[in-house]
């Protein structure tokens, strides 16, 4: 499924942050976050628990005060112009809490009274799409149904920007599907969507671009297509039989620059190249997928490779192989690539942080100083 609105505007960015930093006392929230979300985009924001997604969102919505840096939505300052911003934004928080004793219908009517438009038809339409019973008391609802109330509340005023923080938790697969269809519809209508999640398949499903956040810092901003086409490849090789030659081949690969997450269980050789196999997470998802495609009965090895493809082909040519497959890595593998612990790959992570910053800065500078949020 792809984002429906290809007419991304080149005007004022929907969201622009500039070295946005939030500290909780001395504790890290987010550091130097630079984001540039174009109007009309579905922009993913991914990272594990505690990475800083909710902090970024709450700072954008003016729910918490930034420590330093700048942030704007449609050119309006997130602190100073908060009231005007909130009229144009629909927000679905990761957890929804409501007053007890109210039916969904009354609660949504009350919430709608904050907007200068009649939202009743839209409330009925959205509730029907999500299968929400408006007559039920919210306190009697399941977690998933309470989440539906939150979705209707976030969308009923047809906002220009929709901010979703882990939106699908608690929704069953059928409702998730209806929800994603709804988001694509909203995007076709012209809405920009910021979609925070730690579930890659969701991001891949609807987003145009993604920012990856790690320990409070944005380490990469990529199009989903670009992430999938990244220089990293998943290589799976098959040997005619488990043999000392196969074990030697694995040792050769282990020593080769650019080889990571080497998984060679079937050969009985060392199952990993250093700590990469574990830390990158690639061994689980990758070897399973690749290894299954190598004929059964043969020993196989699977690894991620990033580097000169000629060097890879030359190395493989020197091995006695029965089969070889070079494939795009899964999004999961690409994602984990940005999450290697410091140490071996510390330089890579630092590089990615610089690259992300350069991409954002370049985008901002190229598109004119006027795009810097005014303070
Ligand atoms: N109110 C708070 N007081 C102190 N530290 C906080 C507070 N809120 C968040 N943090 C810290 O800020 C960092 C970022 O947290 P945040 O909730 O933004 O991450 P997240 O990516 O949204 O995680 P999750 O997916 O678990 O919601 C974490 O280290 C967290 O412990």
CATH fold name of the largest domain, please? Rossmann fold
Overall 3D geometry?
elongated
Give the N-terminus to C-terminus distance in angstroms: 39 Å
CATH architecture of the largest domain: 3-Layer(aba) Sandwich
The number of helical elements comes to 14
Instruction: Estimate the mean pLDDT confidence.
Output: 79
Strand neighbour order, sheet with most strands? 6-7-8-3-9-10
Give a quick rundown of the structure.
The protein is an alpha/beta fold.
Walk me through what this model shows:
It comes from Bifidobacterium vespertilionis. By secondary structure, this protein is an alpha/beta fold. The chain has two domains: 15-224 and 350-371, Rossmann fold; 233-328, no CATH class. 38% of the residues lie in helices and 23% in strands. It is built from 14 helices and 14 strands. The strands form three sheets. Strands 6-7-8-3-9-10 form a six-stranded mixed sheet, sandwiched between helices. Strand 7 (161-165), helix 6 and strand 8 (192-197) form a beta-alpha-beta unit. The chain is elongated. The model is unreliable at 1-8, 268-297, 342-356 and 358-375 (pLDDT under 50). The structure holds adenosine-5'-triphosphate. Adenosine-5'-triphosphate is lined by residues 24, 27-29, 47, 49-55, 94, 198.
